[in-house]
Specification:
alpha/beta, Rossmann fold, four-stranded antiparallel beta sheet, ABC transporter transmembrane region fold, six-stranded mixed beta sheet, single chain, 10 strands
């Protein structure tokens, strides 16, 4: 990361996140003055302590000076404590705001944007990258204020005591600045590499946990352990690299400090011998110089902290700045449902980063309140058509209409409000049965939820669970069978009570008994609703009012079940294969 980029990112962090906490930072700045002043006071007090207590042996100072030193240390400790408390709070507030914005950005992103990056990468942004920003704000800002002020006050004290020696002591400053500049650039690059490995590790661990059954049945524990070992080792190496860069300045600074102190003692010896400097001044100056070493060392490496924070912020801002292709436009009118008629007119679509069209010149008309089905071999384009209706994607060519309204010209919220979807990929949350069903309508009463479950043929099995509707179902409903999960999914769709229903192979993975129950639930769900169904089992769509046969992205035949058996070779072939199996 070059300096202009660093500057732009730091300015953005200040303007949008830190500036609103400026009053708290000013309080922390005042407390930093307390830290700097008390640190200088400790060094200065050694002058009268040695002179009055040891040389002049003034008994009146025997108690006063030690008490004053204790007070100076106490003031330094209290000031530093409260300054840190304030900036820790500010750092966490900034993290909270960035994480909320990240969550909002992910939730508002279109499907392509979300699916183009592994979920582990997003988790890395939430956990790793924002932590780098937190360190920048909470530690970096405090150290910058505290150490700059402390160093300034100590240098002023050194000049006050002996300007010649102070000039000699300042020789180390340009070297420290050079070290900081050279290491800062390396730190930004190493932080970016570390974040990339962290994202890959998070992605891998997430998949490893989710795929635990598959790993065990194929006995791939050793293979996955080797993969995880490689990633964890890579992460360790990146952390080592970061750590090595951070401490690389230490031996150089130690050597420079040693040269500075040795030269100071050598030069001071001549000054004391000539009477130009007293022994009390020597020890006071030496203490000030030693106390100045810590802020010099801190400031020599602080820009590395800024590069780390800026690198994390840059990755977060890339997510925040990504503009979704499909988004809510407030000025668009709401969708007005009359009959629920669906039309596709000359619709073609290709998935991003692919050359071949998933569907080509699709023309479909589905009457309101009727049931239409899409059949065809895998990859024929059935799911693509389903995904275009709620605008998960937009067609490259052509238009989709509901009740003669272009769905691209109505508000996104009103469109999706009128559509329910039940698919084979059931999404359930690690919550209660009640909460999962009520996800469709957060204000639903218990009576409405129970009624929806009755329609979905789910009430009986729910009553037999340990706590009924308050039973926790585990991650993605792991404590439920496939049929039970599907019926909860249908109950959720029933509760939403949308005029348009999309069924994407909702019974494909069920046994015969579960399929019968789910099929009855689907009949209740789709009654008097415009329904578009995808089903591999043709027995589930025999009653459809219209069936569209797809092949290689095109509609090749249309009709009822009986008509297609007579007129469609593809449909007849699919049906015959299923009968024989």
């Amino acid at each position: 990361m070059n300096f202009p980029t660093l500057k732009v990112i730091l300015l953005r962090i200040y303007r949008f996140y830190v500036k609103k906490h400026l009053n708290k930072i000013l309080i922390s700045l005042l407390l930093s003055f307390g830290v700097a002043g008390s640190t200088a006071a400790i060094a200065w007090l050694l002058d009268p302590a040695i002179k009055k207590m040891f040389i002049e042996q003034d008994k009146s100072m025997m108690l006063l000076i030690p008490i004053t030193i204790v007070l100076a240390f106490s003031l330094k400790g209290a000031s530093l404590y409260f300054a840190r408390i304030i900036l820790i709070k500010v750092g966490n507030e900034v993290v909270k705001e960035i994480q909320i914005q990240l969550a909002s950005s992910v939730l508002k992103s279109d499907i392509h944007t979300i699916e183009s990056k592994h979920s582990g990468k997003y988790l890395s942004h939430f956990l790793y990258d924002v932590n780098q920003v937190n360190q920048l704000v909470s530690s970096g800002v405090l150290n910058l204020m505290k150490d700059t002020l402390t160093l300034s006050v100590l240098i002023s004290l050194m000049f006050y005591q002996n300007w010649k020696l102070a000039l000699f002591a300042l020789i180390v400053m340009p070297f420290a600045a050079f070290i900081a500049k050279s290491l800062g650039k390396r730190m930004g690059k190493a932080t970016t590499e570390s974040a990339q490995v962290s994202g890959s590790l998070t992605s891998f661990l997430s998949e490893m946990i989710k795929g635990s059954r598959m790993i065990k049945i194929y006995q791939q524990e050793n293979f996955e352990l080797n993969r995880s070992t490689k990633l964890i080792t890579s992460m360790m190496n990146k952390r080592n690299k970061l750590g090595f860069i951070l401490i690389r300045a230490t031996p150089i600074m130690e050597m420079l400090t040693g040269v500075m102190i040795a030269g100071f003692i050598y030069y001071s010896g001549f000054m004391i011998a000539s009477g130009e400097m007293g022994i009390n001044n020597f020890f006071s100056f030496l203490t000030a110089m030693m106390l100045a070493y810590q802020p010099i060392r801190s400031l020599a490496t602080i820009n590395m902290l800024f590069y780390q924070g800026a690198a994390g912020a840059e990755r977060v801002f890339n997510v925040l700045d990504a503009k979704p292709n499909i988004k809510e436009i407030e000025s668009y009118p709401g969708l007005k449902i009359n009959l629920g008629k669906i039309e596709f007119k000359n619709v073609s679509f290709s998935y991003p980063n692919t050359d071949e069209a998933a569907i080509k010149d699709i023309n479909i008309s589905i009457e309101g309140g009727s049931t239409a089905a899409l059949v065809g071999h895998s990859g024929a384009g059935k799911s693509t058509i389903i995904n275009l209706l709620p605008r998960f994607y937009d067609p490259n060519k052509g238009e989709v209409f509901i009740d003669e309204q272009k769905i691209s010209n109505v508000s996104l919220s009103s469109l999706r409000k009128n559509i329910s979807m039940v698919s084979q990929d059931i999404i359930l949350f690690d919550d209660t049965i009640r909460a999962n069903i009520a996800y469709a309508n957060q204000t639903a009463t218990d009576e409405q939820i129970i009624k929806a479950c009755d329609f979905a043929a789910a009430s009986d099995f729910i009553k037999n669970t340990p706590r009924g509707y308050d039973t926790l179902i585990g991650e993605n409903g792991i404590r439920l069978s496939g049929g039970q999960k599907q019926r909860i999914s249908i109950a959720r769709a029933v509760l939403k009570d949308s005029p348009v229903i999309l069924l994407d192979e909702a019974t494909s993975s069920l046994d015969a008994e579960s399929e019968e129950k789910v099929q009855n639930a689907i009949i209740n769900l789709t009654k008097n609703k415009t329904t578009l169904v995808i089903a591999h089992r043709l027995s589930t769509i025999i009653r459809a009012d219209k069936i569209f046969v797809l092949n290689k992205g095109k509609i090749v035949d249309t009709g009822t079940h009986n008509e297609l058996l007579k007129n469609s070779m593809i449909y007849k072939s699919l049906y015959s294969k299923q009968l024989s199996s």
